[in-house]
Design goal:
single chain; 605 residues; alpha+beta; Glutamine Phosphoribosylpyrophosphate, subunit 1, domain 1; Rossmann fold; 37% helix; transferase
Length: 605
């Protein structure tokens, strides 16, 4: 996924306007970049595995009337980059085509690259070679491809640029004699474009025609892949290092919680205090109240709400409800901090395309974010502490900061969240010494005093391993600030009004061909690159994971029997080697070193 942009002008491209487009595109991903210019009758393509702002400086002296480009968040096709050039056609594509492998045989063309975007160029050339009409080309591509296709298709021999999208993540605007396009409306507004239109129907723009071969320049600096391959057949010796012995200690007689749970106690009947203090959370308010609440936000024209969107099970079902049941017109917002897996991104692409919903991405500096994780993980490995595991996921809390930026840029205030009300994990702070707050009604707790106490306890644990005092500290603290201290406005939870039903959710998502993980039966957190590792730590040391607490809440809600839940967690707690390996490779920590440290931690049972 990426940000694409372009300027087509009868005069030289204005550098200030181009810079605005470039910098905003980079907000959507900076892992690699590409530019297209037209000089002396030839289209020149520049591709680099570094940020677009860097690439632009290198080619800026080549002034042109046409400049098109992208800033990419590396997803499918780790070794290839855009613009994709094939058979005299070039493609800039935002999105992921999730069925590209199956399409090559159908169009009668040979695949030459890993990247999914190549299929768009392949379909284009097959269609035109067979005498197909240019006007029907976008329809042909969109009829075959599944997943987001927001595309700029460059046809030099025909002197045409074709812009089309199946989810609305593409806008075109005009200013003077120039035509501009971008993945979002905001940068076009910022440079003063008028007549800004969201591209739902194909738009054809005249560009200089050229019969010359495309001139391609590839520039590579990166020594490692940002996204390691997810292999199911991993190294046998490594996989053998992962231990899994079934917990045989005491559990609550009503739920699944173990005696190793922080602050747990049992009554004479063996029922734990978590059960005794539990108040049903999955009891929605009347749905009519939500319809009444959103009525003032509805717009006759344009989108009317923002939906935070991870590609996970609950946010995907929440989006389904918002579009199909609430009849709202959302824009989804995704924050990628380097731990969103390709599976999660493919599900974002599937759902956005199927529902025709624009997806705005804010991608952090993934290389830097993973360096932060690695520094904190190495500090943790020197002094393992279950209460400090949460620092490994602190980087994702900037999600709460960027949604405020998106609200300002889109002019949309209402945000609807699809957070599972049963995802309460008291133990993560409990291992740090924070007792459970049984009155807390939200998955994410707020409050100054709570946070100050929590951070004080965390500081004490950090002092045991000075490596925590590294360059990531400000990133961690500022993320916690935006999550817990900033005021949330126009902020509502869809599952406060819709009952959360796991079977209904799984069945509904199956109709979208929603992708499940190949290494586990659960559909929870499968797009999160961190969960497999930290759950392995919790289970190895304490004999339970967040699956146990989640299934225990389902028991208390009457959704599962204890026997059903126990059978589920025995499978769900099985170590997921492919995802643990992916995680450690992504942050550059040796698998054997990390797992041996975890395995050597004294057990609580």
């Amino acid at each position: 996924m990426c940000g694409i942009f372009g300027v087509i002008s009868s005069s030289l491209v204005n550098e200030d306007e181009l810079t605005v487009l470039v910098k905003h595109a980079q907000q959507r991903g900076r892992d690699s970049s590409g530019l297209v210019t037209f000089l002396h009758g030839v289209y020149h393509i520049y591709r680099a595995d570094y940020p677009i702002t860097h690439l632009l400086k290198e080619v800026r002296q080549q002034a042109s009337h046409v400049v098109l480009g992208h800033s990419r968040l590396v997803t499918n096709g780790l070794g290839d980059n855009q613009p994709i050039a094939r058979d005299g056609v070039a493609v800039l594509h935002n999105g992921i085509v999730v069925n590209d492998e199956a399409l090559w045989a159908e169009i009668g063309k040979e695949r030459t690259l890993q990247i999914d975007t190549e299929i768009i160029a392949g379909i284009a050339t097959a269609h035109l070679d067979s005498g197909g009409a240019l006007e029907q080309l976008p329809v042909r591509i969109l009829s075959l491809c599944r997943g987001i296709v927001a595309c700029a298709l460059i046809l030099p021999r025909l002197g045409k640029l074709c812009l089309f999208s199946n989810n609305g993540s593409l806008y075109v605007g005009r200013k003077g004699d120039a035509t501009f396009f971008a993945s979002e409306r905001y940068p076009l507004t910022a440079i003063g474009c008028g007549e800004i239109d969201q591209v739902r129907e194909a738009v054809f723009v005249d560009i200089p025609s050229s019969q010359a071969a495309l001139d391609i320049s590839d520039r590579k600096e990166r020594k490692t892949d940002l996204i390691p391959a997810l292999s199911l057949s991993g190294a046998a010796e490594e996989e053998k290092l992962l231990s899994y012995r079934r917990y045989q200690g005491r559990r609550c007689t009503k739920c699944l919680l173990t005696e190793t749970m922080p602050f747990i106690n049992f009554d004479a009947d063996g029922v734990c205090n978590y059960c005794r203090h539990y108040k049903p959370r999955n009891k929605p308010q009347p749905r009519e109240e939500l319809f009444k609440l959103v009525e003032s936000y509805r717009r006759v024209h344009g989108d009317d709400c923002l939906v935070p969107f991870s590609g996970g099970r609950d946010s995907c079902f929440g989006l389904h409800l918002i579009v199909k049941e609430l009849q709202m017109k959302p824009i989804t917002y995704t924050y990628d901090w380097g731990m969103v897996t390709d599976l999660g991104r493919r599900n974002i692409s599937r759902m956005s395309a199927e529902l025709g919903v624009e997806n705005i991405i804010v991608a952090d500096d993934i290389t830097k974010k993973r360096e932060y994780i690695a520094k904190n993980l190495r500090a943790w490995l020197k002094s393992p502490h279950l209460g400090m595991i949460s620092i490994l996921t602190a980087g994702d809390k900037h999600f709460f900061r960027h949604i405020e930026t998106i609200k300002k840029q889109t002019g949309i205030s209402l945000n609807l969240w699809g957070i599972n009300p049963l995802e309460v994990t008291h133990f993560k702070a409990g291992f740090l010494g924070v007792p459970p707050d049984f009155e807390e009604k939200r998955v994410y707790s707020h409050g100054v005093m709570k946070q100050l106490r929590y951070q004080g306890l965390r500081l004490g644990a950090m002092l045991q391993s000075p490596g925590y005092f590294n360059s990531s500290l400000w990133d961690t603290l500022s993320g916690e600030y935006y999550r817990s201290f900033t005021k949330k406005t126009d902020y509502y939870h869809i599952f406060d009004y819709w009952r959360w039903d796991e079977k209904q959710i799984d069945d509904t998502l199956a109709t979208y061909d929603w992708e499940r993980a190949p290494d586990t039966k659960t559909t929870w957190r499968i797009g999160d690159g961190t969960a497999a590792f930290y759950n392995y730590v919790y289970y190895t040391v304490a004999g339970f994971t967040e699956h146990d607490t989640f299934r225990s809440n389902q028991i208390r809600e009457g959704d599962l029997t204890r026997a059903e839940a126990l059978e589920m967690v025995e499978e769900e707690n099985t170590p997921r080697y492919p995802n643990i390996k992916w995680y450690l490779d992504a942050v550059g920590v040796d698998f054997k070193e990390a797992i041996q440290v975890v395995n050597a931690i004294p057990k609580l049972y």
